Amino acid sequence: MAHLDVMLDIISLRAHFPTHDGLVKAVDEVSLQIGKNERVGLIGETGCGKTVLGMSIIRLLLPTTRITGRIIYQGRDLLSLSEEEMRHLRGGEIAMIFQNPTTSLNPVLKIGDQIAEVIRLHRGLDKEEAKAEAVQMLDAAMIPEPSKRADQYPHELSGGMKERVMIAMGLAGQPFFVIADEPTKGLDALTKAEIIKLIRDMTADRSMLMITHDLNAAGEACNRIAVMYAGELLEVAPAQTILSDPGHPYTQGFVRSLPSLGLHPIPGSSPSLIDPPKGCRFHPRCPRAKDICKREHPPMISRGKDACVRCFLCT
Known about the structure:
Helix content is 33%, strand content 24%. It is of the alpha/beta class. The protein has a single domain, classed as Rossmann fold, CATH 3.40.50. A hairpin with a 2-residue loop joins strand 1 and strand 2. The radius of gyration is 20 Å and the shape is globular. The two termini are 17 Å apart.
């Protein structure tokens, strides 16, 4: 599914971690394109490799990580850039909104100073200009009394407010590409809805990869959804297709597990990333698995316009 105007092209990416128990195949042969001004949701259960994929893009993994493949951004392979070149890109052209703002924000620095630091680093403004711009970013993030909030410390803000600060900080360097890692995690329903709308509005003219286990959030914020399981992609399709006509049995189970559809969980648990099942990695939990699913690893196949699925049952 080639995009005419590709912002980011992930090609056969692997990110493996050596451990005492064996090699953890957190990301295993993942290929994914994200177009300019396109928002893609990356969904899957906890531990499937979603965050590792995001961290691979901005190269914030441990030095011991064995990473291969290509990540082409604006014609440059991010995996071949020097660390100094990556530092210029991080927070500037490519930004990450980290999960858990309580631990990501510096507790001893005022909110405005933390955002201003990003602005000075990536946009070259002086101290006063950066501070004024930080207040504007807080205002754009729909934070009331932005001048007052800029002089507060993280512990003085609610969880929802801190998430808004993280979004403002992530966008302060005016990035072209944004990675949002679990931006709605731990928020109540009302605050979650507000954050989703804020993300959608503030990334309207940017490309985004939104990492989440919340399928509803991805459906509301994103144009397209990629479904990840045990280190690989199982399905990629327009958001509406994933929600209304999912192809892979795992995606179907994920949709059925939504509270609005009765909260029917997928039986079993995610497999080990050290020793994933042979054949289709989902077959031990799949109610429709056939013999071929246990023997052979299914390739990604086309499933109509702009959709593909890794499943023998869809051929």
